[in-house]
Write a structure and sequence with these properties.
Elements (H helix, E strand, L loop, with lengths): L1 H16 L4 E2 L7 E8 L2 E7 L19 E7 L7 E8 L6 E13 L2 E10 L4 E8 L7 E2 L13 E4 L5 E5 L10 E2 L2 E2 L16 E4 L12 E2 L2 E2 L17 E8 L2 E7 L6 E6 L6 E8 L10 E5 L2 E8 L10 E7 L15
Parallel strand pairs: 16-20
Antiparallel strand pairs: 1-23, 2-3, 3-4, 4-5, 6-7, 7-8, 8-9, 10-11, 11-14, 12-13, 14-15, 17-18, 18-19, 19-20, 21-22, 22-23
The chain binds beta-L-arabinofuranose (FUB).
The site of beta-L-arabinofuranose has 13 residues, from β2, β6 and β17.
Length: 338
């Protein structure tokens, strides 16, 4: 009898791990979903992909988004509600184009939508817009966050109540144009044998509108304690960073870009260093994937996107699937082709 119980629980957990991913948004193309639970509801903050005349190129100009929508659900299998346009390019005084991946954070009765966009000089900066409700609409600040650059902001609330922004993205995301937070003339990635560029981290000020410190480099080490190298395209950070905590450890996850994987590294504090652990999602259809990992009703979920429906790199669809851990805290590997 014990054997039957063990066997059926093994079969059940195998089936759970294989639960088919669910596409969440069917009235538009969407990508880069940051999901959060606010007031017992699930809120999704994605990019809004659109068709464009801009030709596909390395600078990412074909990701030509012009507004943000917010979506919500009462439960993970529930109906998805589109709350409409919550922030429009025309309403962001400093931004010219390309509203890329956003995230949202809550503090003291206000919701802060963080996003990147190109300014009037075609330089990516990170902006913030504020609302009293999670579904927006959001009102943009007049200027981007002072000292911000590059793309893909995500904001993590630590157990002591501090908020940290992680950000950065190579290539179209312009991270290679900076060292130590200053623009560099060459604007190239480090050489293959040099340390890879990491995502950046900055503690946020009490009012959530500024950096409380100069952004710092996040180090990702291999198991021998050596920083990953810029030529290590299978493992090094490229873009789309996310932070979550599991059993007291800090999990830094990201896209490897050119090798199209989602990987993660584990650390003991928000600043790292983080030790590379492995890949948890193999390449999806399409060039990018960009994710968030969220605990909902004591289960963990991965929100991400692919281009199976459109077959066009810049027209993506957000999906969700269960994410599971092994007993040792590693994440069970999933196929991006499911
Ligand atoms: O959506 C535009 C960009 O593509 C994002 O900012 C990146 O993370 C990639 O998903």
């Amino acid at each position: 009898q014990l054997f039957t119980i063990i066997l059926s629980s093994l079969v059940c957990s195998a089936l759970l791990a294989q639960e088919t991913p669910r596409y969440l948004i069917d009235n538009m193309y969407s990508a880069d979903a940051s999901a959060h639970v606010f007031n017992n509801k699930i809120y999704i903050y994605p990019s809004h992909d659109i068709e464009t005349e801009v030709k596909e190129a390395k600078d990412g100009g074909h990701y030509d988004m012009k507004d943000y929508h917010v979506f919500s659900m009462d439960s993970i299998k529930g109906k998805v509600t589109d709350h409409g346009v919550v922030l429009d390019l025309a309403a962001i005084p400093w931004a010219k184009k390309q509203l890329w991946a956003p995230d949202c954070a809550y503090k003291n009765g206000r919701y802060y939508l963080y996003f990147s966009a190109k300014d009037k000089n075609d330089i990516f900066k990170i902006g913030v817009a504020v609302s009293n409700v999670p579904q927006g609409p959001f009102k943009a600040e007049k200027n981007p966050i002072k000292g911000s650059y590059s793309i893909d902001p995500t904001v993590f609330k630590d157990t002591d109540g501090s908020f940290y922004m992680y950000f950065g993205g190579i290539s179209g995301g312009q991270l290679q144009n900076y060292r130590n937070n200053k623009p560099i003339a060459s604007g190239t990635e480090p050489g293959k044998e040099e340390n890879a560029l990491g995502p950046k981290i900055a503690k946020l000020s009490n009012n959530m509108l500024e950096y409380a410190e100069e952004p710092k480099e996040v180090l990702i080490l291999d198991k021998q304690g050596n920083p990953l190298k810029a030529g290590d395209g299978e493992r090094r950070f490229f873009e789309g960073v996310w932070m979550h905590q599991y059993k007291g450890k800090y999990y830094l996850s990201y896209s490897t870009g050119t090798s199209h994987k989602l990987c993660y590294a584990i650390g003991d504090k928000p600043y790292g260093p983080f030790v590379f652990e492995g890949e948890f999602l193999s390449p999806v259809s399409g060039w990018t994937t960009h994710h968030s990992i969220v605990e909902i009703d004591h289960k963990w979920y991965l929100f991400y996107h692919d281009t199976k429906q459109s077959k066009v790199n810049s027209l993506r669809n957000v999906k969700v699937r269960a994410l599971e851990y092994n007993p040792d805290g590693t994440i069970k590997k999933m196929s991006g082709q499911d």
